[in-house]
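Re: your question from the hallway

Yes, I did run it. Sequences:
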Amino acid sequence: MNIKKEIDVRLSEKLAKLTNLSDAPALVNPTSNPKFGDYQANGVMSAAKHLKTNPQKLAEELIATVDLSDLVEKVEVAGPGFINITLKKDFLQDRIAENLHDERLGVPLAPQPERIVIDYSSPNLAKEMHVGHLRSTIIGDALVRLLDFLGHNIIRQNHVGDWGTQFGMLVAYLDKLQKDLPPEQTDSKNPNASRNSLFIEDLEEYYRQAKQLFDTDENFANLARECVVKLQSDKADVLKRWKLFRDISWEHCKKVYEKLGTLLTEQDIRGESAYNDDLPEVIKALEEKGLLTESQGAKCIFLDEFKDKDGNALPVIVQKSDGGYLYATTDLAAIRYRVQELKADRILYVTDSRQSLHFQQVFAVARKAGFVPEGVRLEHIAFGMMLGPDGKPFKTREGGTVKLMDLLDEAEHRAYNLVSEKSPHLPEDEKRKIAHVVGIGAVKYADLSQNRTSDYVFSFDKMLSLEGNTAPYMQYAYARIRSIFRKNKSDKNNEQITDRITIEHPAERTLVLKLLQFAEAVESATSDYFPHLLCNYLYDLAGAFTTFYESCPVLKSSEPIRSSRLQLCQLTARTIRTGLGLLGIETVEQM
RNA sequence: GCGCCCGUAGCUCAGCAGGAUAGAGCGGCGGUUUCCUAAACCGCAGGUCAGAGGUUCGAAUCCUCUCGGGCGUACCA
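Structure:
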């Protein structure tokens, strides 16, 4: 049960009736200060302002009309028209007892499940994954888990870059290599001979060299462009190489995803190449709608809502003057597929904020062209850049791109050193397991715990710190609780844990209330796609637990308090594990 | 030039459908351990919420302008 929502709905309904305002939200939130109770409603004041009446009087009227007796111990009007609400102890105890046997820990399912397509990760298959793919992958994966938990039907889409100039370049470069080699070496050195002889590292290097050639050698650039054309016309030998590149690259991605623990699989891939045949169709459809204009040889859609410096409409180019298609064209084709074939109710794009103009334009064109029905939502879940400690874009010391695999390896390595230092007694394989969970968790949590819209400063030291709002802190909080149960099990006078939770101590009450607010945290993190709100909640929960644990002896208490407190420990552990799980972060039993 | 985002403690960040005394963590200083994991906890110091106007009973939050930073802005993705 979402307590906040429950109170809000009841108050808002009555407030609307009382004021005859169509929109009179009660604006219920947890109180800013515990002395005001558990929840406060702030909406009366603005409603009173609209009606030009006395807010305190209106607040008094409202609480006289609304029935909250099943939840509430005390409701009072305070200050200029706040309504302060204190929940009943019985209510808290009853609700928390329900969560004891609830897999979902009180989080309600979405009343209307939707089919939600989430486009995320989307690496370029011509080269290794690098830090630029990290945020999309982490944030996208967390949103998948969160929305799925609410009962939505999630369709992951990995819109990989597996087509176009970049692949033309690679194929052309391989051709060139082959020609340059002496004939007798062709079989052993020719990467095309066997896939085993070509690795992602080679591919990375080829891409670099091919790119350089492409930029400097006009002849080569033309060859590369020809290869793109050949790709599009299904020339068998060219296609064979393309598949080879793609397969090698995917093997590499798979390893990264595996290490990262993302949900993406081969089934989720639907890359740019998948839309190749649709691109002329998209142009045709736009043409038929009368949206296309030819300008400087390119086919464009001019949209009035986007203006250039002189106030002229800005174009969205969908076909180049040389006949080639662009990013926007592919995205339009993808939208059609997602609407028509996947039957999406909502399509989310998890990409960096630099692409926000692009998506605004693509969304606008898709609407105008009738590719997207009225009720279908298109949303760009934008995020900021990853910065290095110097506040500049995150690069290696030499100024190169940081490979994602290297970064993850280092996180694990650092976590391993930490574990070895703090818990040398643990067996080696255990230490490795913990290092993996903590290292990867740290990278993910550091990203997710920050408001995604802003840039964030990447720091191994900070994310692996045991202090503050970090993964290791949360994982440690979990492990500490689990240790209580190991201890309890090994106790001689191990007693049966009963089901009742009773609130005796203020710290218990605070913890219970916090536990009950898990539903609110999940809801808030999901509604606007802000996973950091769930992180904030978990951190607060850990704090509430610590206070409880410091002031309320658990194993040393006598029944029935002992059972009650053990249950609180159990629920806290489950809530932390579930919450981290929704973010794609694992826990360990000891660390 | 135009557009979008941002500027909160020394540092990294919360808070922003307007609400009560602006919160954390790190760093600094000072404490706590015969006690269920000290990888912990508690306390103190630290702020003209970039600046100036405006709207309001009330502004970090909304509006306008200024300064500072980032990103984007016709054939890359």
